[in-house]
Amino acid sequence: MSTTILVIEDEPAIQELISVNLSYAGHKVLRAFDAEQAQTLIRAELPDLILLDWMLPGASGITLAKKLRSDDRTRQVPIIMLTAKGSEHDKIEGLEAGADDYITKPFSPKELMARIKAVLRRRAPQLTDDIVKIGTLSLDPATHRVTGDGVTLTIGPTEFRLLHFFMTHTERVFSRAQLLDQVWGDHVFVEERTVDVHIRRLRKALEPTGHDSHIETVRGAGYRFTAQKPVHPN
Ligand code: CA
User: Is the pTM higher than 0.85?
Assistant: First the structure.
């Protein structure tokens, strides 16, 4: 599954090295040289993960990490700090600022990829290829197949991403704007009612096995996927 990763690193050679490796691994890469540039990019598209250098010109990586954690929209985005500092104290400061992990320079591309995979598995399971099961509903990201009670359901690509996100984030209410950020990513020109259209299609796709009952409309708030509701096949 393609993941959008924002690389914030002021040293051009390191930024290039990281970006090339991420692109090669199939990720979409956004690049920034400082915190200000990063924030402009984030306003346009919410990344799935941020690689954040500690020492940046202007606002430091730590300052930016704290800022991202205090903002509702960016609070959940996993952050891996890149740091030349190796002392225990600095690592703790990074984690306290809200980073999910840190990696000390110099690092091998292989180590970086392993860290990214581990953080995504922990923080953003909808971006990994792990099979998700809720009751008798099963979704396989690797084969793009959804089955209910063992029956293969026909589902469009956007509805698939929406269902994957829902199944890995059950019981929480998400607003239309949050779903656009999480499922569509680049939503600058997408209207909120688009979400309603795809929710309708998703319900229709799950209807044959009665699994549409998992999706609840929460008036004035948005949508929720509940794992608790009993499924009544039609
Ligand atoms: Ca730097």
Answer: no
